[in-house]
Design brief:
With about 325 residues, the chain is an all-alpha fold. The protein is built from 13 helices and no strands. The chain is flat, with a radius of gyration of 24 Å.
Length: about 325
Protein backbone atom coordinates (compact mmCIF):
# COMPACT_ATOMS: atom_id res chain seq x y z
CA UNK A 1 0.00 0.00 0.00
CA UNK A 2 1.35 3.44 -0.89
CA UNK A 3 1.54 6.11 1.79
CA UNK A 4 -1.14 8.10 -0.02
CA UNK A 5 -3.63 5.23 0.03
CA UNK A 6 -2.80 4.55 3.66
CA UNK A 7 -3.49 8.19 4.57
CA UNK A 8 -6.77 8.13 2.63
CA UNK A 9 -7.82 5.01 4.52
CA UNK A 10 -7.00 6.62 7.85
CA UNK A 11 -8.94 9.75 6.86
CA UNK A 12 -12.03 7.69 6.00
CA UNK A 13 -11.70 5.78 9.27
CA UNK A 14 -11.37 9.09 11.12
CA UNK A 15 -14.58 10.47 9.61
CA UNK A 16 -16.53 7.27 10.34
CA UNK A 17 -15.24 7.14 13.92
CA UNK A 18 -16.14 10.77 14.53
CA UNK A 19 -19.67 10.18 13.21
CA UNK A 20 -20.14 7.13 15.45
CA UNK A 21 -18.77 9.08 18.42
CA UNK A 22 -21.15 11.95 17.75
CA UNK A 23 -24.07 9.51 17.57
CA UNK A 24 -23.06 8.02 20.93
CA UNK A 25 -22.67 11.47 22.51
CA UNK A 26 -26.07 12.63 21.28
CA UNK A 27 -27.74 9.35 22.22
CA UNK A 28 -26.42 9.54 25.79
CA UNK A 29 -29.10 12.16 26.49
CA UNK A 30 -31.77 9.50 25.89
CA UNK A 31 -30.03 6.97 28.14
CA UNK A 32 -29.94 9.36 31.10
CA UNK A 33 -32.77 9.16 33.68
CA UNK A 34 -35.75 11.30 32.75
CA UNK A 35 -36.82 12.65 29.39
CA UNK A 36 -35.41 15.40 27.17
CA UNK A 37 -38.46 17.52 28.02
CA UNK A 38 -37.75 17.27 31.76
CA UNK A 39 -34.15 18.36 31.18
CA UNK A 40 -35.14 21.25 28.94
CA UNK A 41 -37.86 22.52 31.29
CA UNK A 42 -35.79 21.71 34.40
CA UNK A 43 -38.85 20.12 35.97
CA UNK A 44 -40.94 23.30 36.06
CA UNK A 45 -44.53 23.44 34.85
CA UNK A 46 -44.90 24.99 31.39
CA UNK A 47 -47.92 26.01 29.37
CA UNK A 48 -48.97 23.95 26.35
CA UNK A 49 -47.72 26.76 24.09
CA UNK A 50 -44.27 26.76 25.74
CA UNK A 51 -44.13 22.97 25.53
CA UNK A 52 -44.98 23.06 21.82
CA UNK A 53 -42.30 25.71 21.24
CA UNK A 54 -39.68 23.60 23.03
CA UNK A 55 -40.60 20.51 21.03
CA UNK A 56 -40.43 22.47 17.77
CA UNK A 57 -37.09 24.08 18.69
CA UNK A 58 -35.42 20.75 19.52
CA UNK A 59 -37.36 18.63 16.97
CA UNK A 60 -38.72 16.43 19.75
CA UNK A 61 -41.78 15.52 17.70
CA UNK A 62 -39.51 13.72 15.22
CA UNK A 63 -37.71 10.38 15.51
CA UNK A 64 -34.32 9.94 17.15
CA UNK A 65 -32.33 9.70 13.92
CA UNK A 66 -34.08 12.77 12.53
CA UNK A 67 -33.27 14.71 15.71
CA UNK A 68 -29.66 13.56 15.51
CA UNK A 69 -29.53 14.63 11.86
CA UNK A 70 -30.64 18.16 12.76
CA UNK A 71 -28.11 18.31 15.60
CA UNK A 72 -25.11 17.02 13.64
CA UNK A 73 -25.97 19.31 10.72
CA UNK A 74 -25.83 22.23 13.13
CA UNK A 75 -22.54 21.00 14.59
CA UNK A 76 -20.99 20.83 11.12
CA UNK A 77 -21.96 24.49 10.70
CA UNK A 78 -20.53 25.45 14.10
CA UNK A 79 -23.89 25.47 15.89
CA UNK A 80 -23.92 23.34 19.05
CA UNK A 81 -27.28 24.67 20.19
CA UNK A 82 -28.18 27.02 23.03
CA UNK A 83 -27.18 26.62 26.66
CA UNK A 84 -30.17 25.88 28.91
CA UNK A 85 -28.56 27.81 31.79
CA UNK A 86 -26.60 30.52 29.98
CA UNK A 87 -29.33 31.19 27.38
CA UNK A 88 -26.56 31.82 24.83
CA UNK A 89 -25.09 29.86 21.90
CA UNK A 90 -22.94 27.06 23.28
CA UNK A 91 -20.04 27.84 20.96
CA UNK A 92 -19.80 31.40 22.33
CA UNK A 93 -19.53 29.99 25.87
CA UNK A 94 -16.76 27.55 24.95
CA UNK A 95 -14.32 29.81 23.09
CA UNK A 96 -12.19 31.15 25.95
CA UNK A 97 -12.55 27.98 27.99
CA UNK A 98 -11.38 25.81 25.07
CA UNK A 99 -8.32 28.05 24.64
CA UNK A 100 -7.44 27.65 28.33
CA UNK A 101 -7.71 23.86 28.16
CA UNK A 102 -5.78 23.42 24.93
CA UNK A 103 -3.04 25.80 26.09
CA UNK A 104 -2.73 23.79 29.31
CA UNK A 105 -2.58 20.47 27.43
CA UNK A 106 -0.12 21.88 24.87
CA UNK A 107 2.10 23.29 27.63
CA UNK A 108 2.08 19.96 29.48
CA UNK A 109 2.70 18.05 26.23
CA UNK A 110 5.82 20.11 25.50
CA UNK A 111 7.11 19.37 29.00
CA UNK A 112 6.43 15.66 28.54
CA UNK A 113 8.09 15.38 25.14
CA UNK A 114 11.13 17.53 25.89
CA UNK A 115 11.94 16.28 29.38
CA UNK A 116 10.56 12.74 29.04
CA UNK A 117 12.42 11.98 25.82
CA UNK A 118 15.63 13.66 27.02
CA UNK A 119 15.67 11.76 30.30
CA UNK A 120 14.69 8.46 28.65
CA UNK A 121 17.28 8.68 25.87
CA UNK A 122 19.99 9.72 28.30
CA UNK A 123 19.19 6.88 30.67
CA UNK A 124 19.02 4.41 27.78
CA UNK A 125 22.43 5.35 26.40
CA UNK A 126 24.30 6.15 29.64
CA UNK A 127 24.39 3.06 31.80
CA UNK A 128 25.50 3.24 35.41
CA UNK A 129 24.74 5.61 38.26
CA UNK A 130 23.12 8.24 36.00
CA UNK A 131 20.73 5.67 34.56
CA UNK A 132 19.78 4.37 38.01
CA UNK A 133 19.34 7.86 39.45
CA UNK A 134 17.08 9.00 36.62
CA UNK A 135 14.94 5.88 36.79
CA UNK A 136 14.53 6.12 40.57
CA UNK A 137 13.37 9.70 40.14
CA UNK A 138 11.00 8.69 37.33
CA UNK A 139 9.52 5.86 39.39
CA UNK A 140 8.91 8.23 42.29
CA UNK A 141 7.27 10.82 40.04
CA UNK A 142 4.92 8.23 38.52
CA UNK A 143 3.55 7.46 41.98
CA UNK A 144 2.39 11.05 42.59
CA UNK A 145 -1.23 11.76 41.55
CA UNK A 146 -1.80 14.98 39.64
CA UNK A 147 -3.90 16.61 42.36
CA UNK A 148 -1.25 15.84 44.99
CA UNK A 149 1.46 17.30 42.77
CA UNK A 150 -0.72 20.38 42.22
CA UNK A 151 -1.19 20.96 45.96
CA UNK A 152 2.52 20.50 46.72
CA UNK A 153 3.54 22.85 43.90
CA UNK A 154 1.07 25.48 45.10
CA UNK A 155 2.32 25.26 48.69
CA UNK A 156 5.98 25.51 47.71
CA UNK A 157 6.12 27.81 44.70
CA UNK A 158 2.96 29.90 45.09
CA UNK A 159 2.30 30.21 48.83
CA UNK A 160 5.79 30.00 50.36
CA UNK A 161 8.12 31.29 47.62
CA UNK A 162 5.48 33.41 45.82
CA UNK A 163 7.11 32.74 42.46
CA UNK A 164 3.92 31.88 40.61
CA UNK A 165 0.22 32.78 40.88
CA UNK A 166 -2.19 30.37 42.53
CA UNK A 167 -5.36 30.89 40.51
CA UNK A 168 -6.53 32.14 37.12
CA UNK A 169 -5.47 31.75 33.49
CA UNK A 170 -3.90 35.16 32.84
CA UNK A 171 -4.64 37.75 30.16
CA UNK A 172 -1.88 38.30 27.59
CA UNK A 173 0.06 35.43 26.02
CA UNK A 174 3.06 35.87 28.30
CA UNK A 175 0.79 36.15 31.35
CA UNK A 176 -1.09 32.99 30.30
CA UNK A 177 2.18 31.06 29.98
CA UNK A 178 3.25 32.38 33.39
CA UNK A 179 -0.01 31.19 34.96
CA UNK A 180 0.33 27.78 33.24
CA UNK A 181 3.72 26.87 34.71
CA UNK A 182 2.44 25.23 37.91
CA UNK A 183 -0.66 23.55 36.42
CA UNK A 184 1.35 22.42 33.40
CA UNK A 185 4.04 20.81 35.57
CA UNK A 186 1.41 19.20 37.83
CA UNK A 187 -0.43 17.75 34.83
CA UNK A 188 2.74 16.54 33.11
CA UNK A 189 4.74 15.17 36.04
CA UNK A 190 3.57 11.55 36.09
CA UNK A 191 3.44 11.38 32.29
CA UNK A 192 7.00 12.69 32.00
CA UNK A 193 8.16 9.83 34.19
CA UNK A 194 6.13 7.27 32.21
CA UNK A 195 7.43 8.44 28.83
CA UNK A 196 10.98 8.57 30.21
CA UNK A 197 10.82 4.97 31.46
CA UNK A 198 9.35 3.65 28.20
CA UNK A 199 11.84 5.64 26.12
CA UNK A 200 14.71 4.26 28.16
CA UNK A 201 13.43 0.68 27.70
CA UNK A 202 12.94 1.14 23.93
CA UNK A 203 16.38 2.70 23.46
CA UNK A 204 18.04 0.02 25.57
CA UNK A 205 16.30 -2.76 23.58
CA UNK A 206 17.44 -1.31 20.26
CA UNK A 207 20.96 -0.63 21.52
CA UNK A 208 21.32 -4.31 22.49
CA UNK A 209 19.86 -5.65 19.23
CA UNK A 210 21.96 -7.69 16.79
CA UNK A 211 21.84 -5.21 13.89
CA UNK A 212 23.11 -2.39 16.11
CA UNK A 213 25.92 -4.55 17.47
CA UNK A 214 26.83 -5.48 13.89
CA UNK A 215 26.94 -1.80 12.91
CA UNK A 216 29.20 -1.04 15.88
CA UNK A 217 31.53 -3.96 15.05
CA UNK A 218 31.88 -2.64 11.49
CA UNK A 219 33.28 0.57 12.89
CA UNK A 220 30.42 2.91 12.02
CA UNK A 221 30.52 6.23 13.95
CA UNK A 222 28.64 6.05 17.27
CA UNK A 223 26.52 9.10 16.41
CA UNK A 224 25.38 7.56 13.15
CA UNK A 225 24.53 4.24 14.81
CA UNK A 226 22.50 5.97 17.49
CA UNK A 227 20.57 8.24 15.13
CA UNK A 228 20.01 5.82 12.23
CA UNK A 229 19.55 2.52 14.02
CA UNK A 230 18.79 3.03 17.70
CA UNK A 231 16.60 6.14 17.86
CA UNK A 232 14.78 5.61 14.57
CA UNK A 233 13.63 2.10 15.50
CA UNK A 234 12.93 3.04 19.12
CA UNK A 235 10.66 5.90 18.07
CA UNK A 236 7.79 3.61 17.02
CA UNK A 237 6.80 2.42 20.54
CA UNK A 238 7.72 5.86 21.91
CA UNK A 239 5.35 7.60 19.49
CA UNK A 240 2.59 5.17 20.47
CA UNK A 241 2.84 5.83 24.19
CA UNK A 242 3.55 9.54 23.83
CA UNK A 243 0.47 10.01 21.64
CA UNK A 244 -1.83 8.10 23.99
CA UNK A 245 -0.32 9.85 27.01
CA UNK A 246 -0.91 13.29 25.52
CA UNK A 247 -4.48 12.25 24.69
CA UNK A 248 -5.05 11.21 28.31
CA UNK A 249 -4.02 14.69 29.47
CA UNK A 250 -7.41 15.93 28.29
CA UNK A 251 -9.11 13.88 31.02
CA UNK A 252 -6.48 14.74 33.62
CA UNK A 253 -6.91 18.45 32.89
CA UNK A 254 -10.31 18.37 34.63
CA UNK A 255 -8.71 17.99 38.07
CA UNK A 256 -5.95 20.52 37.41
CA UNK A 257 -8.42 23.10 36.11
CA UNK A 258 -10.45 22.70 39.30
CA UNK A 259 -7.41 23.10 41.57
CA UNK A 260 -6.03 26.18 39.78
CA UNK A 261 -9.45 27.59 38.74
CA UNK A 262 -8.40 27.88 35.11
CA UNK A 263 -11.98 28.04 33.81
CA UNK A 264 -11.34 25.49 31.07
CA UNK A 265 -13.50 22.91 29.32
CA UNK A 266 -12.98 20.30 32.04
CA UNK A 267 -14.20 22.46 34.91
CA UNK A 268 -17.07 23.76 32.75
CA UNK A 269 -18.05 20.17 31.92
CA UNK A 270 -18.30 19.32 35.63
CA UNK A 271 -20.40 22.45 36.16
CA UNK A 272 -22.67 21.70 33.19
CA UNK A 273 -23.26 18.10 34.31
CA UNK A 274 -24.26 19.35 37.77
CA UNK A 275 -26.67 21.86 36.21
CA UNK A 276 -27.96 19.33 33.65
CA UNK A 277 -27.08 21.74 30.84
CA UNK A 278 -27.05 19.00 28.22
CA UNK A 279 -26.30 21.08 25.10
CA UNK A 280 -23.10 22.22 26.80
CA UNK A 281 -22.29 18.70 27.99
CA UNK A 282 -22.81 17.26 24.51
CA UNK A 283 -20.62 19.93 22.90
CA UNK A 284 -17.72 19.56 25.35
CA UNK A 285 -17.76 15.76 25.30
CA UNK A 286 -17.88 15.71 21.50
CA UNK A 287 -14.95 18.14 21.26
CA UNK A 288 -12.82 16.16 23.73
CA UNK A 289 -13.63 12.83 22.07
CA UNK A 290 -12.86 14.30 18.64
CA UNK A 291 -9.48 15.59 19.82
CA UNK A 292 -8.59 12.17 21.24
CA UNK A 293 -9.63 10.39 18.03
CA UNK A 294 -7.63 12.83 15.90
CA UNK A 295 -4.55 12.30 18.10
CA UNK A 296 -4.84 8.53 17.63
CA UNK A 297 -5.06 9.05 13.87
CA UNK A 298 -1.97 11.27 13.94
CA UNK A 299 -0.12 8.49 15.81
CA UNK A 300 -1.12 6.00 13.10
CA UNK A 301 0.14 8.35 10.40
CA UNK A 302 3.44 8.81 12.24
CA UNK A 303 3.78 5.01 12.29
CA UNK A 304 3.68 4.94 8.51
CA UNK A 305 6.12 7.84 8.22
CA UNK A 306 8.62 6.29 10.63
CA UNK A 307 8.30 2.79 9.18
CA UNK A 308 6.63 2.40 5.74
CA UNK A 309 6.54 -1.37 6.33
CA UNK A 310 3.57 -0.81 8.67
CA UNK A 311 1.26 0.41 5.91
CA UNK A 312 2.59 -2.25 3.56
CA UNK A 313 1.99 -4.91 6.18
CA UNK A 314 -1.63 -3.81 6.67
CA UNK A 315 -2.21 -4.06 2.93
CA UNK A 316 -0.75 -7.58 2.86
CA UNK A 317 -2.93 -8.60 5.79
Amino acid sequence: MTLGRFLLGRLIALVVTLLLASLAVYGALYLAPGTPISFLTRGRTVTPEELAAIKARYFLDEGFLSQYGHWIAGVLHGDFGTSIIGKAPVLSLLGGRALNTFMLVAFASIIILVIGLTVGITAGLKRGWLDRTLMVGATGAMAIPAFVAAIVLVLIFAVNLRWFPVFGAGDSLSDRLYHLVLPGVALALASVAYVARLTRAAVRTEADSDHVQTAVSRGLPRGAVISRHVLRNAMIPIVTVAGLTIGSLIAGAVVIEQVFQLNGLGSYLVQAVGQKDFPVVQAIVLILVAVFIVLNTVVDVLYAVLDPRISAGRQAA
